[in-house]
């Protein structure tokens, strides 16, 4: 967003939930949105400024940092998270439920009532889902810059992720618990196994061999009269 100034797409995206409609998504006025979050929105968990995630309740004005709300919900039982429709602390539209309103929701779920449905037209607008795999554009200085997930690279110390890969090969009925990203590529600088005094660059590639259609058991012939 400026010289040596960066912002995580995942951190700033929730601040655009009311303006994101159909993909590809375009983020306008990023600098202004970042400044607004830094000066106006305080996290309800850590009490620090810079929060971007708002409670889904229309009349609730509590905000959270991405990491804070994710850690908060990581302590919840998986069954409760499924009932709340919360993944990594977020609802499908990148808002969340604060501690007050998730307790109300959980209580009503346990009582088997429908008085506090998230999709209740009286209290809420329809819960839209934001597709995070879509292309995202950033509007900086009246110019559009594209952020395609296939082109994003990540550097963490000596670890460099060249390609995050994809999960396009997964099937709806796939029961395999060992899921790996296809076309994943990462490198890391580490000590050599041949010379302890030297460092070498190690590469990790993941290419998933798709054998589903090669197995006869996955095919069947249907005869019509």
TrEMBL record:
Pfam families: FYRN, zf-HC5HC2H_2. GO terms for cellular component: nucleus. InterPro entries: FYrich_N, Znf_RING/FYVE/PHD. This is PHD-type domain-containing protein. It comes from Adineta steineri.
